[in-house]
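WARN no homologs supplied; continuing
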Amino acid sequence: MHEMPKGANVALAALTEQPGAMVVSLGWTSATGDGDADVSVILLDDNGKVRGDDDFYFYNHPAAQDGSVQLLGKTPTSNGSEDRISLDLAVVPKAVARIVVAASRYGGARFGDLADLRMTLSDGSGDTLLGFSIPDAGIETAFIFGEFYRRGEEWKFRAVGQGYDSGLAGLATDFGIAIVDDEGAEEAGEEADMEAAGAGPTLTGAGGPAGSTSADAPGGGTGADPAATAAPVVPAQAGPTDPGPAPARTRTVRTAKKKITVPRVAKKSLAENETWRPARLFPVPNAKSDREREARATSVLLAVMAEVPELGRRLTAGFGAPAGRMQTFTEVSLPHGDTPRRPDGVVRVERAGKLWTALVETKTNGNPLKSEQVQDYMDIAARRGYEAVITLSNDVALDGSPLVTVKLDGRRKHKVGLWHLSWAEVAQQAQLLIRHEGVGNAAHAWLLQELLHYLHHDNSGCHGFQNMGPSWVPVRTGIETETLSAGDPRAVEVVESWERLVRQVCLRLGGELGQKALPVQRARRGSDPRSRRAEAADVLSAEGRLAAEVRVDGSPGVLGLSADLRTGKLRTSMDIPAPEGGYPLTAAKRLVRMLAEAPADLHVETLVEARNGPRGTLERLRPEPGDLLPKDGAPITGFRLSLFKGMGGARGTTESGFIRSVDEAVDRFYATVVVHLAQLQRRTDRRAHAAGGAAAG
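OK structure emitted
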């Protein structure tokens, strides 16, 4: 991997033979687990300005119609999460001279509060080409991480690292964009449906100052770029080459495109009684064999991917596929020695006369992927010049823990990427599209709804992670009998299964809420995930406890989840800060009022410095909120809210299964506690914002 210093530039053709399809990853870590930022991509012409409203891509306008830019969202890593962006440089319009990749924070947060700011660039096969770190972030609220730019017929990349102390608005102003927050639209959206995404910023084109353009370093290779290192922090209304204000255009375009979604509440049924079953596009009869179930699931998914471009593009963009005409095939016979091989499916995408091809290997139920089978497909793909092999199963991939082991022939010039999808990821993406983000037409929405119904059916075999593995029962027994020793490899296997379960919980929550939901990892970037799992396994052996944290956008805090295998109890919890200023008793009363709809068995604990504070159930505290106050008058830092539930013992998803009990515990805590807190917090913030605006006026 090519490590770049700030200001350096390099030709992409010097790094890879596939310089067209690129995946950019922006990452950071946070000691508190709640640090986050939003990525954005800006297309610029030769004058350093956007050509129009469609040249600005951010969370509310995530993709270009031609597929040249697509924000892929966040993906968990061993140390936190990364935001990924797919770029198809081969189809970027000729009028675009530069592509700026940036990130911004919100709510007054600064990048100096985050650690390990880093950008990496990978090609279509998944090989990491270069990395660029920003070690000196401080008061900046927005950063340009890097930019792609044309030199003749080739693309080059420059590591910029330029910061702004005025957020997204200040960064965008330099490139001819004015950002305006539409508070009214956001509030209306929340009141209409608190689970739907609120309307985002409005984009108004403006003839503002152009961003500075910079020439290559001498020699045209990798060198210092003085223009990229100038002005580390830029004010909101003045760029490094600010010629003064220019008249703004009057045209205003909302970047949140209106698309079709499907309401959660089904239409009134015309059936005479419950025995009448609605006709389904993809019925799920009792399959006679795993092979039959796998073939049916593969055909259903690939057919919908080819017909619904939004889903097909979303599931393949991260694997380096271009945006283009997609066709899918099943049961294709391909020569391989004396015996042909039949992959479960083939995906082909055509763009500008070029083909991108991926072989698909599918498993359903708890059936594991077979290394020798995947190895055959990797060899076939390499010989035939295909770009990828995609495995699809109920398992969830983890960093540093491959699902299958394959050998790559380094002598081969053509590289093949090996990628994995979980059925839970497929369901999440379909749900995000039809419930929250929308698709192009009603027929596509209906197809996605039918796909979801199929995936969720008991007989489909596509239910996501559903087995804690063969080590689950021995480890539980060892903890109960106190015979489990540190360093036992079975404990590591249970920790890996726990991580897979937590990631699936995030996928399910994200799809239901339409918000980013990610596991929180507090390890430093670059730490070995295997070592981290070994440490967690030692904690499991010594204390009998599994623990995890989940961050959901829009929640008032980080969701804690722990399983105590000694007591058989699951605990879901969230810490919320005490309000600044005011009297402690007022804060306690306000908290109890906010929890008016919460269950009576909710445990509330007062957080004070260096020790446990008063605690009790909500049922006992409702008539006496003052019982939450420390007797010695110690300052209150916050409150911890917890619900407890019995833990299933079986390793699967049966009625008494551990996985089902975890899902139920998270669902109950979120629906009865977090949702009400988040809704009331948003209303309080809006009232405070309105009061502040009135006072300023």
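The two ends are 54 Å apart (CA to CA).
OK
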